């Protein structure tokens, strides 16, 4: 009894476990700001925004995320992570038959063009077209965005978000797909069962495309796989 109480107390004091849950409408702008900071220096964002000014890159990212999040909430999935009472990061995904997400409403698109400038917005449109051409045709969960506030990275938030999403897909025996523009993320995803599908370049940035097979019966959620995935069909790829 006493030991249990102590260990429960220790866990409570630890306060280091990220809490994963849905996002309220009021939290959309602050979460957009978190994701804007997370992706400030990602190679694809730098290639699209083409500015040496990190503050401008955050502004552009913020407007893109602000337009995306309500659509993803309504038609896909947004999992938000909280750590020590703060919004720490999020995972944005589409469901197997929910790709691609519809365009944001006109007002949100206008606000995004205004915030990013039309050149940046046009380059993002080109990026989405290029990646869409390589998107698998089969119904897969699609990890569109996973980002953690830089001040809270390395504390298990990204792993917790990914694990929660994959556990849901595993329950439905559904595979997953993602692209990443950071070489160091590849090993992180491999540890959750993703395997390399191919590499491409968009606006000069290297993009790694990864796929995770549907859960086999009895496979634990998020378990590491030993074997490579079977081949899949790609649009244009
Ligand atoms: C990638 C990202 C989401 C990971 O989230 P995080 O909360 O920092 O990561 P975690 O603390 O959960 O650790 C996840 C794994 O990455 C490793 N890791 C974390 N920070 C690392 C770092 N700075 N360098 C190397 N590895 C690191 C951890 O060892 C861990 O490995 P494990 O799962 O085998 O234990 C986060 O770093 C991020 O937002 N990066 C910028 C945006 C981005 O590239 N997103 C992914 C787009 S596909």
Protein architecture, described:
- This protein has 237 residues and is α+β, with helices and mostly antiparallel strands.
- It has a single domain (18-212), classed as Gcn5-related N-acetyltransferase (GNAT) (Aminopeptidase, 3-Layer(aba) Sandwich), CATH 3.40.630.30.
- Helix content is 43%, strand content 20%.
- The chain has eight helices and seven strands; from the N terminus they run H-E-H-H-H-E-E-H-H-E-H-E-H-E-E.
- The chain has a seven-stranded mixed β-sheet with strand order 1-2-3-4-5-7-6, sandwiched between helices.
- A hairpin with a 2-residue loop joins strand 2 and strand 3 (86-94).
- Helix 2 packs across helix 4 (54-75), helix 4 (54-75) packs antiparallel against helix 5 (106-116) and helix 5 (106-116) packs across helix 6.
- It starts with a helix and ends in a 25-residue tail after the last strand.
- Bound molecules: coenzyme A.
Which compounds are bound in this model? coenzyme A
Number of strands: 7
Estimate the strand proportion.
15-25%
Shape: globular
Output the helix-strand order: HEHHHEEHHEHEHEE
Q: What's the CATH class label?
A: Alpha Beta
Q: Summarize the biggest pleated sheet.
A: 7 strands, mixed
CATH superfamily: Gcn5-related N-acetyltransferase (GNAT)
Query: What is the strand arrangement across the widest sheet?
Result: 1-2-3-4-5-7-6
Average pLDDT for all residues: 89
Helix-and-strand structural type: alpha+beta
Separate helix tally: 8
Q: Between the first and last Cα atoms, what is the distance in angstroms?
A: 60 Å
User: How large is the radius of gyration?
Assistant: 18 Å
Give the domain tally.
1
């Amino acid at each position: 009894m006493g030991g249990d109480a102590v260990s429960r107390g220790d866990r409570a004091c630890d306060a280091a476990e990220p809490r994963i849950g849905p996002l309220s409408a009021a939290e959309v702008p602050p979460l957009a700001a978190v994701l804007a900071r997370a992706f400030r220096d990602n190679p694809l964002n730098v290639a699209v925004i083409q500015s040496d000014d990190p503050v401008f890159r955050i502004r552009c990212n913020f407007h893109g995320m602000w337009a995306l999040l309500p659509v993803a909430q309504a038609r896909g999935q947004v999992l938000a992570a909280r750590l020590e009472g703060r919004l720490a990061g999020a995972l944005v995904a589409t469901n197997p038959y929910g790709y691609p997400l519809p365009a944001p409403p006109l007002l949100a698109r206008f606000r995004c063009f205004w915030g990013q400038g039309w050149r940046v917005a046009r380059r993002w449109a080109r990026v989405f077209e290029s990646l869409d051409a390589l998107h698998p045709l089969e119904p897969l969960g699609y990890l569109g965005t996973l980002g953690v506030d830089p001040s809270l990275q390395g504390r298990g938030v990204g792993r917790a978000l990914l694990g929660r999403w994959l556990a849901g897909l595993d329950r439905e025996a559904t595979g997953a797909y993602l692209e990443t523009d950071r070489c160091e993320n590849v090993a992180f995803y491999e540890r959750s069962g993703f395997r390399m599908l191919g590499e491409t370049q968009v606006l000069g940035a290297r993009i790694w495309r990864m796929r995770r097979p549907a859960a086999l019966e009895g496979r634990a959620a998020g378990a590491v796989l030993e074997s490579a995935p079977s081949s899949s069909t790609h649009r244009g790829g």
